[in-house]
Amino acid sequence: MNKLEEAREIINRVDLDMIKLFKERMYAATLVANYKKENNLPILDQKREDAIVDKNIKLLDDKELENYYLEWFRTMLKVSKDYQTKLNED
User: pTM (2 decimals)?
Assistant: First the structure.
């Protein structure tokens, strides 16, 4: 196996793990959406979102990847909020 094949195997394994984690996170987003709907709360909690971003960027601890991680993480948060909004419209 060459280095490219090895890298692709790692990516495939990580992608599979990320799919499982994505589904788990979206399940949690469903629980959040239900709670917010029941308690008449807005989907966006900017203070909470800012705290999550700050906490996770510190956990990353890699300045070279920081901007890429922020872009990916903020996209994930947007997807979660979009899904919660859809759930609350149903």
Answer: 0.90
